[in-house]
Amino acid sequence: MVVKSEQPVMIYHVPFVLNSDRKSGSALRPQRMFEAFAELGYRIMAIEGSSTERKRKFELVRRYVNSGGRIEFCYSESSTMPQGLTDSDHLPRHPLVDYAFYRWCSENGIPLGLFYRDIFWKYPEYLTKVPPVLGRVLRGFYKADLLSYDKYADIVFLPSEQMFNEIPILKHPKLSALPPGSNTVDTPVDYSLPVTLFYVGGLGRPIYSLHELFKAVNLVPGVRLICCVLQPQWEANKAEYEPLLGDSVEIVHATGVELEKYYQQAHIASLVVEPGDYWRFASPIKMYEYIGHGKPIMAISGTLTGRKVDDGAIGWTVPYEAEAIAKQLSELAANPDEYAAKLENVYRARPQHTWRARASQVAQELAACDRRGQI
Q: Entry's SUPFAM superfamilies (predicted)?
């Protein structure tokens, strides 16, 4: 019996549980991409959950294809953990199930695109975050994952083009930049009020150091910073930052819809963090959420986020030095009209950075990889 669907059918594969309630960028992105493909009109056959659940769902998809059903393509997102260890207790119950699925896609001519999100494990700092022996074992798992992507994926999507050279193992698939996206949310601001920066994201070395930003805000009268970080991260780092708080810095802890009241107070969104290797190629989800909320961005010169801000003229870039940051803030406080051009550019950029636009890019690029029916 041939199975037919009025909607185009795709597979959505992730080696973990899709969870709309989780708020981190690594959890939010796969959920938003799933929703975006649905908006585009795809019937989605999801292979997600524990390794046992993925094995069962893989069998259902295989039966669908064996009965004559057509799959347009498969889109997969990697985990920040090796895919064989993504069960809640990190035991490798079915460590080869995802490899087997990728091989099956390849054997059946189903275009496979995989988003690879993170290579922190590659750098020396990784071994400071996990026990060194465990870290070296996990690195072996990460490399095995990459070898499977190299063998079976048609396209490996990465957060930025700058990340291409960071993964030399990937030699065969096409590499394509697929930054995060955003939903469009209008948050009007009273620009007659004092200049307010809003930072939402991580806190803690080696990636999220904000010391110079805190110092700069305290140097400029009438400028304030709302800094939104997870409470455990604040507790772990507050000894470094409490001496820098002053009256101009407010620390808040919020996620999801709770963030909206802070966006409504913000004139400028901040990506003013200490630059390092990570920021050479990092394309954080918060940058695109800032754009989606219509916020001009202040970023650090020499970083990828800084280049994107400059290229789109959607904000300002400064060196990571308190005096330079303070100088730029003083100029903005004295010349509020400078917001207008940046704000217009942000609003013009928003449609090209939605989650739906990202899903549409994936569908188009994978359709171009489809060789079924060709002689």
A: UDP-Glycosyltransferase/glycogen phosphorylase (SSF53756)
Length, in residues, of the chain: 375
pLDDT tens digits, one per residue of 236-262: 999 999 999 989 999 999 998 999 999
Least confident of 14-23, 102-111, 167-176, 308-317: 14-23
Biggest CA-to-CA distance, the chain: 74
The predicted structure's pLDDT at residue 333: 87
Q: What is the DSSP string of 50-113?
A: SHHHHHHHHHHHHHHHHTT----EEEEE--SS-GGG-STT---SSTTHHHHHHHHHHHTT--EE
What is residue 7's DSSP assignment?
A: S
This prediction has a pTM of 0.91
Domain-wise residue ranges, the chain: 9-181+354-367, 196-353
Closest by Cα among 281, 263, 282, 291 to 352? 291
Question: Which amino acid does the sequence have at 259?
Answer: L
Domains 9-181+354-367 and 196-353 share a fold: yes
Span 144-155, average pLDDT: 96
Kindly report the CATH class assigned to 196-353: alpha beta
pLDDT tens digits, 24-77: 556 889 999 999 999 999 999 999 999 999 999 999 999 999 999 999 999 999
User: Pick from 320, 322, 296: which is nearest to 309 by CA?
Assistant: 296
Q: Band of the pLDDT at 374, cuts 50, 70, 90?
A: low
Mean pLDDT confidence for 183-194: 83
Retrieve residue 27's tokens.
């959890």
Considering the four listed CATH numbers 3.40.50.2000, 3.90.1150.10, 3.40.50.300, 3.40.50.800, the one that applies to the domain covering 9-181+354-367 is 3.40.50.2000
* Pair 210, 241: CB distance under 8 Å: yes
Of 201, 188, 197, residue with least CA distance to 329: 197
- In angstroms, rounded to a whole number, what is the distance separating the alpha carbons of residues 153 and 106? 8
Residue 239: its H or E element: helix 231-241
Amino acid type, 226: I
- 11 vs 124, which has greater pLDDT? 11
Phi, psi for 304 (deg, rounded to 5): -65, -40
